[in-house]
Each structure stands twice: as structure tokens, then as C-alpha cells.
Design brief:
Strand order of the largest sheet: 1-2
Radius of gyration: 26 Å
Helix content: 55-70%
Number of helices: 5
Structural class: mainly alpha
Order of helices and strands: HHHHHEE
Length: 136
């Protein structure tokens, strides 16, 4: 009988870890960090609120509605153009407020994470693994 669990483990670990019982060596970790970089997020600088609001107008549906409002103006249908423009402003404002609130919530969650490192030893398939987690 074929042990599928052992075969799957061998397929997963073979290309990445040379010795699945001992893990990566220090040299292998350093070479992988040079190739792939560290396991950290690049934090982009914050945009201003005005730029975030104006970026909402890049949505293809909003652009299509703006074009239809322009066509309404060219056809002298000012009431339709006003209605479309007001709908666009309302939708963009609601989307901006939701995005702003979600970003603030994410910032608050980041503040809850401790700025220190922890080492954990856990057992998986009866092999001990040492894992390193870095919090910012």
C-alpha cells in the first residue's frame, strides 16, 4: 500500500528543503534572503486625503458616468447631467469614506501587534520545526 501522506510530504519538501528532518541551514536561509528578500512588507508613503478622493474617479464605471454626464451637457439635457453628476459625487464620497475607515482600522490593528520577535517550536508530522515570526 502506498503512503500518500509521505509521498505528498516528499513532493512538497524536496524542491525547497534539502533535509526535511533538519530544516534549512543558515547558509541556505541567507541565500534565500538574498534571492527572495526578507519576509517583510514594503510600506508605501501615505497619500493625501485629496489624492485618495480623486483616485476614486479612476474607476471605469465612474469614468463612463462622467462621459455620459458630458454627453448630456452637450445635448443640453442639464437636468440629466446634474442628476448623473450628483450620483457620481455621492458614490465616490461613500467609497472614499469606506476606504478611509478601513485604512484607519488597519492602522489600529497594526498598533496592537507587538514590535518584537518571537521564536516558536512546534511539531508537525512528528518533526520539530523552529519558526521565526517578526512583528512590526
Amino acid at each position: 500500500m502506498v503512503d500518500r501522506k509521505a509521498d505528498t510530504k516528499a513532493i512538497i519538501l524536496t524542491p525547497t528543503i534539502k533535509n526535511p528532518y533538519r530544516g534549512l541551514t543558515y547558509d541556505e536561509v541567507e541565500s534565500r534572503r538574498r534571492v527572495h528578500g526578507t519576509n517583510e512588507f514594503d510600506i508605501a508613503p501615505d497619500e493625501t486625503l485629496i489624492m485618495k478622493y480623486l483616485s476614486q474617479f479612476k474607476d471605469p464605471m465612474i469614468v463612463l458616468l462622467l462621459v455620459s454626464a458630458l454627453v448630456s451637457i452637450l445635448m443640453k439635457q442639464f437636468d440629466d447631467a446634474f442628476s448623473i453628476t450628483m450620483a457620481i459625487v455621492i458614490v465616490v464620497t461613500v467609497a472614499f469614506i469606506q476606504e478611509y475607515r478601513s485604512e484607519k482600522s488597519l492602522e489600529e490593528l497594526k498598533k496592537l501587534m507587538p514590535p518584537k520577535c518571537r521564536w516558536y517550536l512546534f511539531f508537525m508530522y512528528s518533526y520539530a520545526h523552529l519558526c521565526y515570526f517578526k512583528y512590526f
